[in-house]
Design goal:
Layout lengths: L8 H7 L2 H34 L16 H22 L1
Length: 90
């Protein structure tokens, strides 16, 4: 016995409500914040390592993003936002 199910992706998207799409988009955004925060933490510690002569040159030598404090603040902010949004979405 064979069973064939024909589904067209366009039909599936039409059936999903706008609220559901917004919720899924928010979840995708939240799931991307944690890895971005980790990357910012790595950059903060890399820049800090350059300041205390543990590592070699940092790729951003001038400007606002050349300071480890900025990267650390960005990382903490992204991690806090990800946690807040994850709790709010449940």
């Amino acid at each position: 016995m064979q069973v064939r199910i024909k589904l067209r992706p366009a039909d599936l998207l039409k059936e999903i409500h706008v609220e559901e799409r917004a919720r899924v988009s928010a979840q995708v955004g939240v799931s991307l914040l944690a890895p971005l925060a980790l990357m910012a933490f790595v950059l903060a510690f890399w820049r800090f390592g350059v300041d205390i002569a543990w590592t070699r040159a940092f790729p951003i030598e001038q400007g606002l993003l050349s300071h480890w404090q900025v990267w650390l603040a960005l990382a903490i902010g992204m991690q806090a936002t990800a946690g807040w949004a994850a709790r709010r979405s449940d």
